[in-house]
């Protein structure tokens, strides 16, 4: 994980790599927009959160506007070794004699 994070910080992703990540998300949104359940959900939020309407209208454009430089900037900001959270899983059987 450290190597992947370092690579994202140091090297911008290629346009092809960015599109392989972005296009399925855009297509998923477009398919959702063809369904009445999607619009019912969006409209139910609009009453209490009017800003959600703009978010709904712009979500595909926002995704399509993301650049490799944007991702690299965010990686440099958030994927730092100092901010890494690490987990070590240790068995409660550690050090116990093997079962016979």
Describe, in short, the structure shown.
The chain has 100 residues and is an all-alpha fold. It has helices spanning 2-10, 15-33, 36-46, 51-65, 68-78.
Number of helices: 5
Overall shape: it is extended
What is the number of E strands? 0
What pattern of helices and strands is seen along the backbone? HHHHH
Q: Structurally, how many domains make up the residues?
A: 1
The percent of residues in helical segments reads 55-70%
Largest sheet, strands/sense/barrel: none
Question: Over all CA atoms, what is the radius of gyration?
Answer: 21 Å
In the predicted model, the low-confidence regions spanning at least 5 consecutive residues are none
Structural description of this entry:
The chain has 100 residues and is mostly helical. The chain has one domain. It is built from 5 helices and no strands. Helix 3 (36-46) crosses helix 4 (51-65).
Explain the layout of strands and helices.
Layout: H1 2-10, H2 15-33, H3 36-46, H4 51-65, H5 68-78
Helix pairs in contact: 1-5, 2-4, 3-4
